[in-house]
Design goal:
The protein is an alpha/beta fold and about 400 residues long. It is built from eight helices and 21 strands. The chain has three domains: about 70 residues, Nucleic acid-binding proteins (OB fold (Dihydrolipoamide Acetyltransferase, E2P)), CATH 2.40.50; about 190 residues, Vaccinia Virus protein VP39 (Rossmann fold, 3-Layer(aba) Sandwich); about 100 residues, no CATH class. It has an eight-stranded mixed beta sheet, with helices on both faces. Strands 1-5-6-4-3-2 form a six-stranded mixed beta sheet, with no helix packed on it. A five-stranded antiparallel beta sheet has the order 10-9-8-11-12, covered by helices on one side.
Length: about 400
């Protein structure tokens, strides 16, 4: 079996044999050495026996590379991408998709048990089933050597560029834009590709699905024109530095689950503290009597205001402010939504949520570990329900949605 994982610089180090029992947060195989230390092995699969070589070590844990696979896992498959695993974009193309979903669900529940000290666990991971061509956005990097320019993604755990002319995670229109970049190299070192419905798509077909005719854009964020997404009949403009989930189909699953957890009635109030372009505020706030979205990115707030107006909502407002210090004196929300960055809630944001004292909190997270940490900090609230969403197939990343209720 061809070995893609060995670093020849470490070829003189002593090898040992281990059995792979699970996966780490970055998709690495996990095993234990004879001395009890945990070892993380990139490219290993649960249930297989590998000969490994230690590349980094500390008193409690190690990193290793595969020397050979002596007993392959039943979950192992041949990677279907010619630049995997050199490219850092994917982590799990060497295992079946069923195994990937099992690994992600286990990662979420392990974090909730071990870090969050809760027995409320996810019993499902939602997935569209589409594992390729789902990304509506990609950030590429260009490197120049004289007259030669190479464009691609960073290699795993480095800032060295892995040249890529076709990415399996991207839809056809973005791969075409990628090929155009190779044919006409840009001046920028960092290039954003983003796809969505164009203005004409929206104006000519207001009921068009989010997977209709898309238009690709390639430029720096500062120069991009807005694109539009349509989810469950709601249209969202996304422009400038505004954030939107990279997977439109999985985003709809996440929004539907968050709406189910929020369970708002038309006499209740919603506060969305990291509202972005207002996707959650509008999707869930349409059930409320009043909804307020808070976001510190001016581009995103401009989009959110447009989106509320375009979709005909008069009960939804937006405020450009930090989530930790919004002016909410007149707002006593029944439900608070938080969808913070990967680092989770700041101490000030936790205090603000507790100060607002909503009946329900819907917490959306792209890192199970920070979600589990914050669960313990939200004193007086207990997890009631949680699910995982596979927003990023073939990578190790996983999204979570949790409902916490006051006083249970």
């Amino acid at each position: 079996m061809k070995n893609y994982y060995t670093n020849q610089e470490n070829s003189g180090k002593t090898a040992c044999t281990v059995g792979i029992t699970g996966y780490g947060s970055k998709g690495e195989g996990v095993a234990r050495l004879d001395d009890g230390r945990v070892v993380f092995i990139r490219g290993a699969a649960r249930g297989e026996t590998c000969e490994i070589r230690i590349t980094e070590e500390s008193p409690r844990r190690c990193k290793a590379e595969i020397v050979s696979i002596t007993e392959p896992s039943p979950h192992r498959i041949k990677p279907d991408c010619p630049v995997y695993p050199q490219c850092g974009g994917c982590d799990l193309r060497h295992i079946t998709y069923d195994e990937e979903l099992t690994a992600k669900l286990a990662r979420v529940n392990d974090a909730l048990r071990r870090i969050g000290n809760t027995d409320v666990l996810a019993d499902e991971i939602l997935s569209t089933g589409q594992i390729n061509g789902y990304r509506n956005k990609a950030v590429l990097h260009a490197a120049r050597d004289g007259a030669k320019t190479e464009i691609g993604f960073y290699s795993a755990e480095t800032h060295e560029i892995c040249p890529v002319k076709h990415c399996m995670l991207l839809p056809d229109e973005l791969n075409k834009a990628l090929r155009d970049l190779w044919d006409n190299p840009p001046a920028e070192k960092n290039i954003t590709l983003r796809t969505g419905l164009s203005v004409s798509d929206i104006s000519h077909n207001s009921n068009s699905p989010c997977f209709g005719q898309h238009s690709a854009i390639s430029a720096r964020f500062a120069q991009t024109k807005p694109v539009f997404a349509e989810l469950d009949g709601l249209v969202f403009r996304i422009s400038g530095t505004s954030f939107f989930q990279v997977n439109y189909g999985a985003a709809l699953l996440l929004l539907q689950k968050a709406r189910e957890y929020a369970a708002l009635s038309d006499n209740e109030t919603l506060a969305d503290l990291y509202c972005g372009v207002g996707s959650l505020t509008l999707f869930i706030g349409r059930d409320a009597g009043y909804a307020l979205g808070i976001e510190n990115n001016p581009d995103a707030i401009e989009d959110a205001v447009y989106n509320a107006r375009h979709n005909g909502f008069s009960n939804i407002e937006f405020l450009c402010a930090d989530a930790a210090n919004p002016s909410l004196k007149s707002c006593r929300p029944d439900c608070v939504i938080v969808d913070p960055p990967r680092k989770g809630l700041s101490a000030n944001a936790v205090r603000k949520v507790l100060e607002l004292s909503p009946k329900r909190i819907v917490y959306i997270s792209c890192d199970p570990a920070t979600l589990a940490r914050d669960v313990k900090l939200l004193i007086g609230y207990r997890p009631q329900r949680v699910c995982a969403v596979d927003m990023f197939p073939r990578t190790a990343n996983v999204e979570c949605c949790m409902l916490l209720c006051r006083g249970f």
